[in-house]
Fold this protein.
Amino acid sequence: MVVTTIEKINLFNQITKTQVRADVILGDCLNVLKKLPDNSVDLIVTSPPYADQRKSTYGGINPDKYVEWFLPISKELLRVLKPKGTFVLNIKEKIVSGERHTYVMELIIEMRKQGWFWTEEFIWHKKNCFPGKWPNRFRDSWERLLQFNKQKDFNMYQEEVMVPMGDWAKTRLKNLSETDKRRDNSRVGSGFGKNVSKWVGRELAYPTNVLVMATESSNKKHSAVFPKELPSWFIKLFTKPGDVVLDPFLGSGTTSIVSFQADRNSIGIEIDEQYHKLAIENINEYTK
Amino acid sequence: MVVTTIEKINLFNQITKTQVRADVILGDCLNVLKKLPDNSVDLIVTSPPYADQRKSTYGGINPDKYVEWFLPISKELLRVLKPKGTFVLNIKEKIVSGERHTYVMELIIEMRKQGWFWTEEFIWHKKNCFPGKWPNRFRDSWERLLQFNKQKDFNMYQEEVMVPMGDWAKTRLKNLSETDKRRDNSRVGSGFGKNVSKWVGRELAYPTNVLVMATESSNKKHSAVFPKELPSWFIKLFTKPGDVVLDPFLGSGTTSIVSFQADRNSIGIEIDEQYHKLAIENINEYTK
DNA sequence: GTTCCGCATGAATCGATAG
DNA sequence: ACTATCGATTCATGCGGAA
């Protein structure tokens, strides 16, 4: 368990003392979740092991058993989430004997029966997807980001993720070249809102439900499951400083890192001892 | 019914006579489909009315009745499709009382029970999507393009839709040439010749399963459901000249136009008399 | 310091081979 | 026949070293 206190200077040049906790818990998420109190988490953002992936740590969940495996977990997540909180689930179906498996479709239907609202489906467009060539399909360059809520009324801070829309963007969109039509080079709607202050005075636009982000594959130290921008974007969108973010499948610690950096408390659960250790190392490194 | 004969000069400068038919049929697609013979269509590409859309023509299908309404149609489509043919379904779920409806999820599951293979889900990323702002969601800038097949083995002509590579391609090509020269000077190495020849002159890459295309908003005459590039892309990918393309919800005639332009026969079915008339007008205009 | 270039590295999938 | 493992395929990205 990691508990940290930091001092930060906020955007208005006022010195504030912010106490931010980053708890990294070793254990099976279902058991750990049962110990968390009701209505205590503002945002759950996670990327659970996909079917037949991460066999070493999760034993490789069979696609046919995936829904059955996940439903008890989502039930606990529903309990610990605050009424106005949000659950963002990063997932993609595997190909089984030449066709897409339907476990994600079934999961959505079953989670609604549990009481979840399926508010939206964002698309994560991975520009640098895995290479390969097959006779019957192209490379898979997108994943689902399913937004679930406990009720229709939830917290959403849209202004925090606005993206710059300069004149160049308008011109580009007007005069789409042949290449532009085929390839995505535009940053609008990509979810990049890093230095919004730099763009003050320019025109800002709301993003769409398609996020264009590259994976961080080249980082040798820790093979990040998803790029930091991804949880960071949802944290800015669905929480405010001081809120609590939960990731029941923490992996290498990405969610905890970006939560800490954004002054949000976080709870990360990881079943694998090696990943748990790695997560703590990464958090300490990125939050020095 | 429109029957047309055109003369074309093909790539080898040999004058050939190509007979391409574009049949545009007025009627309810379920009734018309029943008259089509088994295993006669190479590609079905369509954008059916979404739930509660086009109320005037289809009476506004209730989201809860959508699957029930579509299944008899998809059953006929399965029958008329050739064994190695493909069905591309452009669809997106509507928002019902604040959340995404699950009729598309249910449709996929039910169509598999009918015998369809759900091979892949392409994403159509609409860069210039409909403007607007809502307190609880962003603009919807993507739609599903569901690929269904009759069997695991189907026709696919991947080379027809290759896209230009990134800038690094030139560098890579240059380097390969350098390497090739060095190898030629230093050693005989018969095995290397093949590899190099594969890359020479190659500046194209295979696309992914995310299509970035802008909608055609400029045309005032008819609010086109999808841009011509969309059916055109799938026609090139899944058929060859002389094949038969079917669109059971033709609308303003886009599928027939691009089929004709690509030397594919087409069958378009449209229930609404005004749209049927418009489709014929558009086809005649674009194929002069 | 910049910019440029080479290089390793992926939540992959298929088909062939082996047990 | 059915499952398990392995090699081949392929391209955007960021890092590190070099000019």
Summary: Chain B is about 35% helix and 25% strand. Residues 165-166, 168-169, 172, 205-206 of chain B lie near DNA strand D (CB under 10 Å from a C1'). The two ends of chain B are 17 Å apart (CA to CA). Residues 165-205 of chain B form one domain.
